[in-house]
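Notebook B, p. 112. Complex prediction, attempt 2.
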Amino acid sequence: MVAISGFAELDSSNSFELSGDTEVALYRSMLRIRYIEETLATLYKEKEMRTPTHFGVGQEGVAVGVCEALRKDDAIYTHHRCHTHYLAKGGNLLGLVAELYGRVDGCSQGRGGSVHLTDRSVGMLGSSPILGQGIALAVGTALAYQMDGINRVAASFFGEGTLDEGIAYECFNYAAVNKLPVLFVCENNFYATESPLKTRQPAGTELCDRARAFKVESQKVDGNDVAAVYDATLKAVERIRGGGGPFFLECETYRWLEHVGPMFDHELNRSYRTQAEVESWMLRCPVKRSAQRLLYKSIASQPQLDQWMAEVQSEMTVAVAQAKASPWPKPEDLFNNVY
Amino acid sequence: MERDANIFVTGIAVDYPSGIFGSTTDAVKRFGPKRVFDAPAMENALTGIAIGAAAVGKRPVIVHPRNDFMFLAFDMMINLAAKWKYMYGGNAGNVPIVVRAVIGKGWGQGASHSQSLQSALAHFPGLHVVMPAFPADAKGLMMSALKSDCPVIMLEHRTLYDTAGDVPEGEHYTPIGKAAVVRAGSDLTIVATSFMAYEALHAAEQLAKEGVSAEVVDVRSIRPLDEETILASVRKTGRLIVADTSWELCGFTSEVAALAAEKAFNALKAPVRRINVANCPAPVSQPLEKAFYPTATTIARAALSMLGKQTVTFGDIDRDDNFKGPY
């Protein structure tokens, strides 16, 4: 487990004047996701969860910053590394944990696994591991909102690897032509599985320029600064709701664990990135930065932070116990929901 | 579209004056550009967009002027639409998209404007794949598709657009998954798809003149496949010819042959015969194109051969290829 203590040399300042309540909400959501993901990663090693799992540890700032700025009835679609978004949007915790254990209380009744999550009650419409699908889905949902005159936004989370897919550009173009209410959130964590940017993009590439080429308004933010993500999303969404058309947000962030699975790359002697690089990003931990800001601004005390942690631990302990106690799907139900 | 305001139609050329061989022309006039609108050439993205709209209550109809362009949409159709309900355990709702795609034939359509993809698509659980051969079913299957809660792919043969026939007024539903015995017979069964069902009927008419009573089953629906109707006919006649608009290997004709072998073997008096397009890409040059496609004559000759009768000259029983291009 990665310790969430010791605030070291972190930068406590930023230029975003958020209310204390907002700062607290952002922190608590990130803390909760961090603890849940780390707990799941630890439990994953027991080999009872049999579903390829892409942990989002380190990338919480993007999911939380965006989802806190959206409304509950706005829609999101996401990709294979989707637990962060599911939880940030308010997805049911037991639904996530039981899904990983393949049980009937899973959000997809044990049919989908880690990469096929949904919780329509909170606008988390679906996740898919096939690159680019979520972008098209969000554009289509935005098209439906526009046709029906519903003032909602559809958001799509995707990694920068998806910008290697042609479908991304087809969707940017279509959304811009039709001024659709869609938010494109690119989580640039610099690696597509284990391929670094330099093997996939010409030197000097700015992803925002690609979106701008299709007349999509764009902005790059520090994805590990949840306040920056939140602030940028609020402004983007306000613009979208006002009929301004699609918006592209590039959030630079970093995945701490291996592409798929619960280990650190260096534990498995993988050489595509160095332990030093990973550790340099761990110093920019979005959760720690948020905690430090709460303390620095005297919005919360250390005992208060500890109390929130205890609450998350308690919630997760219950969810894991419930998930493990949840029944397996019955073989005679194999064909349910094919049609 | 009158009954359900959530239906919209999109795809390349749907609002052109030519209106996909006239099939969308009236829809444009009656429902206007908000419900019938052109799209950029982005088959896969458009399909994903349709699924995203369907996920929140719309009933999109996508049209591909040729099957061949639909390969680019296989990811969305197969990886997403087909599996949506299942892989979210029924908790993400349904995505009832309808995909229409035209099968080209004649006037040198060639290798990449003539394919028909029913076998490939019917392979995947979660999709429904239908192929109307006659006018009443063109309406009836579309009406059923627009009421269905699952993704439906409707493959329409270009050659059949100018076929005349009775079409019921008002609400008319052809059930998806139900074949039709379009001609009763006792000597052999011809199970056929789309254009080949039309050709099979003509073959049966000529065979009758030779004293052969052929039963013709228009399957109409590839998935789900109406095994019951096919097997009942095979058990009655004891002989089976299967004719399809695509290739043999791993295809529809092989599927039906396997069905007969597994479930009606004891009723078979002769080996099953499959009739397909030639085992090569579609050529352009006229004599090659003629050699590539099976016709009513191909079916009739196969029937006589199966019955041990001498081949006769059937005359000109094959449908005229009266299509004059340009596309």
